[in-house]
């Protein structure tokens, strides 16, 4: 957590060091907003990937059940 804070402080120093009239409170709020935005984007991507994996697993289970039926092998049906 300290490393992330140091990175954010470093980024702020680099991005706003030329603007001596910048209000630190506004810079801090901007940084917090940017971090929250990045976190939300990453969370959305993770959730999408999990949903995609779930769909692929469902499709795979259906394919396996179909193959087992074609081969005449009785098995347990996938639970839903």
TrEMBL record:
Pfam families: HSBP1 (PF06825). GO terms for cellular component: cytosol; nucleus. Residues 1-27 are annotated as: Disordered. Keywords: Nucleus. Homohexamer. Associates with heptad repeats of HSF1 trimers and probably also HSF1 monomers, and with HSP70. Association with HSF1 trimers and HSP70 coincides with attenuation of heat shock response and the conversion of HSF1 trimer to monomer. Belongs to the HSBP1 family. PANTHER family: HEAT SHOCK FACTOR BINDING PROTEIN 1 (PTHR19424). This is Heat shock factor-binding protein 1. It comes from Drosophila virilis (Fruit fly). The lineage of its organism: Eukaryota, Metazoa, Ecdysozoa, Arthropoda, Hexapoda.
């Amino acid at each position: 957590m300290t490393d992330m804070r140091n990175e954010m402080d470093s980024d702020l120093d680099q991005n706003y060091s030329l603007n001596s009239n910048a209000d630190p409170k506004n810079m801090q709020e901007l940084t917090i907003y940017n971090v929250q935005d990045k976190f939300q984007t990453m969370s959305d991507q993770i959730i999408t990937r999990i949903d995609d994996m779930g769909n692929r697993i469902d499709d795979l289970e259906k394919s396996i059940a179909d193959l087992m039926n074609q081969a005449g092998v009785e098995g347990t049906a996938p639970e839903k």
